[in-house]
Amino acid sequence: MTVHAGPTPEATPDVRRDQMLRAAAELIGERGFSDTRIADVAGRVGASPALVVYYFGTKDHLLTEALRWSERAFYADAHTMLAERQGISIRLESLVRLTCVPRGDEGESTGAWGLWFDLWAQAFRHDGVARDRIELDQQWRDMIAGVVRDAVNDREIEDVDVGDFAVTFAALLDGLSIQVALEDPVVDPARAHRIAMRFASTTLGFDWPATRRRAAASRRRPR
Q1: Is residue 59 a contact partner of residue 94, using CB atoms and an 8 Å limit?
Q2: Reduced to 3 states, what is the DSSP secondary structure of residue 184?
Q3: pLDDT (tens place) for every residue of the chain, 223 residues total
Q4: Do 193 and 100 meet the contact criterion of CB atoms below 8 Å apart?
């Protein structure tokens, strides 16, 4: 393996780009998209606004690329976690715990939700952002579908419409996670976790420990 003393000319632009994306993700998470200017991103990394525009063109494009940058760490962690765990119940619980994150517990996840909030708002009005939103959401659905498909292939569960479940479960987790991120007093992380796993275990037909405990308690309850 060759060890380089410093970055090659080809690598330098990528390092600079990552610095800008990190700054954009941090600033948008702190201030929101509408209150973040190209000049603010440039100032945080000691670059000119013209250089930021050179890399990203528009502020909308910078938003979507900052979210992609932020999501890379999320998906790297998720793929590692799923590879280390076996069984559909444990693997789906891992995804639920990665998404239903209370504010302040995981700085990166909380900041990423701020990026998502702004992306959804911009996607509603701008076709270019809407196309990027579709791609980013599909990546999440594909991960869920992969977990379910593995369980079908391993005969943990019966054959199901994997795509339909992935769309529904992704939408459920998005909705629950928004409530958790906004610190809704009714939907805390524990409740969100129970709702998501109850839906998954009932829909896919696998045992989830909390489901078994409730079933046993129901059988013991006097009529």
Answers
A1: no
A2: coil
A3: 333 333 333 444 578 899 999 999 888 888 888 888 999 999 999 999 999 999 999 998 998 888 888 888 778 888 998 999 999 999 999 999 988 877 555 444 445 777 888 888 888 888 888 888 898 889 999 999 999 999 999 999 999 999 999 999 999 999 999 999 889 999 999 999 999 999 999 999 999 975 444 444 333 443 3
A4: yes
* Three-state DSSP string of 87-147: CHHHHHHHHHHHHCCCCCCCHHHHHHHHHHHHHHHHHCCCHHHHHHHHHHHHHHHHHHHHH
pTM for this model (two decimals): 0.76
Domain definitions of the chain by residue range: 71-218
Q: Which ranges constitute the DSSP H helices of 9-103?
A: 12-31, 38-45, 49-56, 59-84, 88-99
Class of domain 71-218: mainly alpha
Give the residue carrying structure tokens 């270019």: 128
